[in-house]
Amino acid sequence: MSKLQSAVADRLDSDRIPTMIRYYTAMGLQLLGLILTGEALLLYFGQMGPLMRTASLGAGLFCAGWLIRPRESR
Predict the structure, then answer these.
(1) 5 assigned to some structural domain
(2) Does 24 map to a domain?
(3) Half-sphere exposure at residue 24, Cβ-oriented, CA atoms within 13 angstroms
(4) 45: left (phi over 0), alpha (psi -120 to 50) or beta
(5) 24 vs 8, residue with greater confidence
(6) What angle (nearest 5°) sits at the alpha carbon of residue 16, between those of residues 14 and 21?
(7) Which of 6, 28, 71, 72 is 20 to 30 A (C-alpha) from 45?
(8) How many Å apart are CA 27 and CA 48, to the nearest integer?
(9) Residue 2 resides in a domain
């Protein structure tokens, strides 16, 4: 294996853990956002203030997770 191939392999291995952390953190935030939005719709049906506040928080968490997820390289 040449030095260049070794350097590329080391770089790919060193990027794997931070990418996995970003991926699973983002998926967790998205899931939490969906659960919170669904809970708001069930618990606060008919009460506009709490429903909008909680659903907005859930949507914000979902969007934050969507923004920090690593992009797929194609």
Answers:
(1) no
(2) no
(3) 5
(4) beta
(5) 24
(6) 120
(7) 28
(8) 28
(9) no
Distance (Å, rounded) from C-alpha 58 to C-alpha 40? 8
Look-up: residue for tokens 């969906």?
34
Number of domains in the chain: 1
- DSSP letter for each residue of the chain: --HHHHHHHHHHHHHHHHHHHHHHHHHHHHHHHHHHHHHHHHHSTT-HHHHHHHHHHHHHHHHHHHHHSPPPP-
Distant-in-sequence, close-in-space partners of 62: CB < 8 Å, separation ≥ 6:
29, 30, 33, 34, 37
Inform me whether the pLDDT recorded for 73 exceeds 70.
no
Domain assignment present for residue 42? The answer is yes
**Does 51 score more than 70 pLDDT?**
yes
Q: What residue numbers bound the domain in which 57 lies?
A: 30-74
Mean pLDDT of the residues in the chain: 86
